[in-house]
Amino acid sequence: MSVQADAAPGRLTHAQGAAFTYDAFISYTHHDRPVAAGIQSGLHRIGRRVGQLRALRVFRDATDLTASPDLWGKVAEAMDRARYLIVVLSPQAAASRWVDKEVAHWLRRRGADELLFVVADGHLRWDEATGRFDPDRSDVALPALTEPGVLPTEPFYVDVSADAPWDPRAPLFREKVTDLAAPIHGKPKSELAGEDLREQRRFRRLRRAAVIGLVVLTVLAVAAATIAVVKQREAIRQRNEAVALALAAASRDAATGNSALALALAAESSRATPVPLWQSTSAMVNARIAFGRSPGQPALPPVTGHVDWVYDVAFSPNGSRIATGSSDATVRLWDPATGKQIGEPIVADPDEVFAVAFSPDGTRLATGGEDRAVRLWDAATGQQIGEPLTGHTDLVNDVAFSPNGTLLASSSKDGTVRLWNPTTGAPIGESITADPEVVCAVAFSPDGTLLATADADRTVRLWNPSTGAQVGSDLVGHTDWVADVTFSPDGTRLATTGADDTVRLWDPTTGLPIGEPLTGHTDTVLSVAFSPDGTRLATGGIDTTVRLWDPTTGKQAGEPLTGHTGEVKAVAFSPDGRRLATTSDDATMRLWNLISDGSVSKPLTGHTGLVTDVAFSPNGALLASSGTDGSVWLWDPRTGGPVGEPLTGHTGAVSALAFSPDSTLLATTGADRTVRLWNPTTGQSTGPPLVGHTSGVFDVAFSPDGTRLATAGDDKTVRLWDVSTGQLIGKPLGGHFGPVYSVAFSPDGTRLASTSKAPQPMRLWDLTADRPVGEPVTERTEVFAAVAFSPDGTRLATAGSQRTVKLWDPRTRQPTRPPLTGHTDGVNTVAFRPDGILLASAGSDQTVRLWDLATGRAIGAPLTGHTDGVFSVAFSPDGSQLATASEDRTIRLWDRLWDADKACELATPYVTLAEVQSYLPSDWDTTCRYAK
Q: Has this prediction a pTM greater than 0.85?
């Protein structure tokens, strides 16, 4: 239905919306903010009578929009309450989703009668024949204004492109604003201009008298200004929070399809407010997890042009072009930077094109298809070279050039491989009968001495292209037809895919399989390609997914790349290995930017037993870990590498460790009933073991001043030690009904918390008086495996066997909020981030979880990676890193999951400025540096 229809559903008429709040609404992009501000100022002034604040009420989002999570709803409401819409046009506005959306909304609701335009930059040309602005001759026309018949007649507009800085006091600019103001006032321009001139003269006369009055009102004005500033700050705060919430929601929506964009939006959300909202931090963590799992990001929207299945894809050797072959009988060339088609389609087959390949020098293109012929094309002009190469008796399904370009191989459904001279088009030797039925694919080795075929009889065969003789025995392993074959760049491996849903690696020298089949696809795997450096393997299949693999380990790299809605027919790496092209029977090609390393955590290996504890040195220079193998390891948290040799001395498992506040000492405890002190710089013990516990020692903590050490033991006691002498201080602190699992000093060092099992799983001790603080916390069945004080000492957190984390007031020993739930097994450890905003917990469910302490909400999805229970968690002193220790014998370093700077660093190579700006208000500035 045309937007000009008089009774368009939902349209506001003057009769329906007689009570307007605004005389005009200005729609613009943030690039044109100075123009919009000048127009608003001029409309406020022109025709203003003495005593009037403004001549017209003009809405501009920077001055009138209040904060709301429903940002578009507020904008639409303001537009519906305005009599006129003034649209500032420029190339930037033409690219703005917000401006186009606002104009489309106005046309739909109000029509074109009260629509005025201002050209801030660029060109605007009217097409009378189609009743629209000509999109080919106008670089500032919004998409909504280029639809045929969108406007009944050429609309009125003024051009202010030469009027910078758009000061309403400038005569020429003021006259142009008067052109806009006249219809809004409902007066001829000459009448309005005359009234404006008289009012200006009157104003000058009254100004002298007003000066005296203003002096009297100064004190009142200052007070009013203070109130206004407070209100303005509150409005800004509300608006910033609304934008942050909207961006966090957009990040969550984008995470599954474009995790790099999700990461960028989360970074912008985090920086929209002075302190990130919990929703922003949660979106950030989720986006980091999604980004870490994704081996690639969409580089462009799906590339369209083919009208049927796209069977094959190939990059030119210099990476400047991509060729695709389709069942629409064409070959098309594309610019990989823009996704735009280069030239006209090449009609390469009367029916379907199944295969395309560039010659090694990039000058020629070979194709094969349904008509049983191979054709050669000039890659620059798209012209066919010579006659078709004929000889196959059934369709040609693959073509490949030898590395030196002197041979061209083709495989066919007729069960043969044929070799051709690509210069003359002449056949070379007899055809190779590779399979009684179908040869599905063919590939040359990097040195050109071998030719591999993927055959429908479930075998892979190797051939000497010079003699046509088979080399070695059949490569047998696939349990269904073999779909594709390729050599690694160094020629040491062969990769094949098949209808048995597997990818297999072979040693072409011995013909033996390398490792187990790579599994993950849920249907036939149709295509395979090695990256140019051989470190990655890409596959695509009928299950519509693209998967990346590490050919050395056989493990899948991240989550599958999804987006195609049909079978993935072909995959190809760019020559530099940074991009992957994929084609599908959904008639599209997709381009992916490949991520080198977006992982959220790094495993540190070395312990030969389970890792019991982990701690950062207070100066951030070291990370220490302890294990049941009796050793203590020191690590560089920046690189993840070990520092020196492991510390040994305990005669059994080392259960816990802690650094002194000045980082000069490391304390360890063990099953051998001892406490040991070490110099972490030299790795040497600083004295004899501290002996006193009568059973294994489970935990250790330094007092904030570093003078005392507290230990918890299987002997149901807590003991205090003098660090300088190694002597016990006073009597053991008893009273627990079972082993004491954890101890923690309050930040001021006056209190100590200890945890054990039910019925009294936590006690607090007054260290100034050597006595318990009140009654112990009682629980019927709970075991508190760990305890930690918040950095400000106002809260205690406990990790419980009932799958919960509990927060307590240490003064009253009462819970401060309901338990934090989410873990699916016992919680083993808790740690506060140094700023006290986040809490980390980890447990036997193999996950690490983050919590917002202000709301008690989980931040992001659980962090996974450990393959067994997690015993310990620790934040780095600056709060940027998280370390965890696990029963799986590893430590994991989780790098800056909540940090906007890190998010920008990861996202900006894959996200453009325009993509992010489409989610932002028109006057909002981005904080990451995106590519334009």
A: no
